[in-house]
């Protein structure tokens, strides 16, 4: 039986702006087990990114409790987190291999080990043969694949993904969704995937957390019992449609 890696209980986050308090996250509770891929969906500005920043250790919660790690799997903030953003944010003066090895270099891994890991991960994300290329020579989808490899190179326990495919065209986004499921199965990592797309949340998630409009509250948190190896054809199924309809209802859009 897998153990919880993340436990949030009534988490709250307030920002100070122009002399006034702005509540970004009001009441968020959720448990994420090791190896889960959890999609986090909600309206724009509802606090999804704030939740990721709290988990990454970039922000501190004002209230509630945040527990990451367990008796079996310790957790070192920074060391055990990988992040993927909407933009790939690759350094233009470094090759793809050098971009992917960067987190490992910062953490002091030996160069040879970092490069071996990077080459393995580039092959896993479908970029074998592109190690010596520069970011401008890759398409947007390929750059995001490199960003995913970079997030995995230091072998973190938790991957946080903030709208990583939001800037891609529709067809590339569909392909990346398929790739994302394959990468998750092969890596076995715990992933929190933020998206505005209800269909993407259902397609990718083993579980789905639905946040209300800001300040964020947990509207629902439920298992998605679709087959783990999913093809795009599943989007036409009755089961898929029922999950989509459920989320629309939770967001007051049905």
TrEMBL record:
<feature type="domain" description="ABC transporter">
    <location>
        <begin position="6"/>
        <end position="238"/>
    </location>
</feature>
<keyword id="KW-0813">Transport</keyword>
<dbReference type="InterPro" id="IPR017871">
    <property type="entry name" value="ABC_transporter-like_CS"/>
</dbReference>
<dbReference type="InterPro" id="IPR050166">
    <property type="entry name" value="ABC_transporter_ATP-bind"/>
</dbReference>
<dbReference type="InterPro" id="IPR003593">
    <property type="entry name" value="AAA+_ATPase"/>
</dbReference>
<comment type="similarity">
    <text>Belongs to the ABC transporter superfamily.</text>
</comment>
<dbReference type="InterPro" id="IPR027417">
    <property type="entry name" value="P-loop_NTPase"/>
</dbReference>
<dbReference type="GO" id="GO:0016887">
    <property type="term" value="F:ATP hydrolysis activity"/>
</dbReference>
<dbReference type="InterPro" id="IPR003439">
    <property type="entry name" value="ABC_transporter-like_ATP-bd"/>
</dbReference>
<dbReference type="Pfam" id="PF00005">
    <property type="entry name" value="ABC_tran"/>
</dbReference>
<protein>
    <submittedName>
        <fullName>NitT/TauT family transport system ATP-binding protein</fullName>
    </submittedName>
</protein>
<dbReference type="GO" id="GO:0005524">
    <property type="term" value="F:ATP binding"/>
</dbReference>
<keyword id="KW-0067">ATP-binding</keyword>
<keyword id="KW-0547">Nucleotide-binding</keyword>
């Amino acid at each position: 039986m897998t153990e919880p890696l993340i436990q949030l209980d009534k988490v709250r986050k307030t920002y100070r702006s122009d002399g006034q308090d702005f509540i970004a996250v009001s009441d968020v509770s959720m448990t994420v087990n090791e190896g889960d891929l959890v999609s986090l969906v909600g309206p724009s500005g509802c606090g999804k990114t704030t939740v990721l920043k709290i988990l990454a250790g970039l922000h501190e919660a004002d209230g509630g409790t945040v527990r990451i790690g367990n008796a079996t799997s310790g957790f070192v903030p920074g060391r055990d987190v990988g992040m993927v953003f909407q933009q790939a944010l690759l350094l233009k003066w470094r090759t793809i291999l050098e971009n992917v090895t960067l987190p490992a270099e910062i953490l002091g891994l030996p160069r040879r080990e970092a490069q071996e890991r990077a080459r393995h991960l580039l092959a896993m994300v479908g970029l074998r043969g592109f190690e010596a290329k520069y970011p401008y020579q890759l398409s947007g989808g390929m750059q995001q694949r490199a960003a995913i490899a970079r997030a995995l190179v230091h072998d973190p326990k938790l991957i946080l993904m903030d709208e990583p495919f939001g800037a891609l065209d529709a067809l590339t986004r569909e392909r990346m969704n398929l790739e994302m499921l394959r990468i998750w199965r092969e890596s076995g990592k715990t992933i929190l995937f933020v998206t505005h797309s209800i269909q993407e949340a259902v397609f990718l998630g083993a579980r789905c957390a639905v946040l209300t409009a800001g300040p964020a509250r947990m509207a629902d948190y439920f298992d998605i019992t679709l087959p783990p190896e999913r093809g795009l054809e599943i989007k036409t199924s009755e089961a898929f449609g029922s999950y989509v309809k459920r989320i629309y209802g939770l967001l007051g859009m049905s």
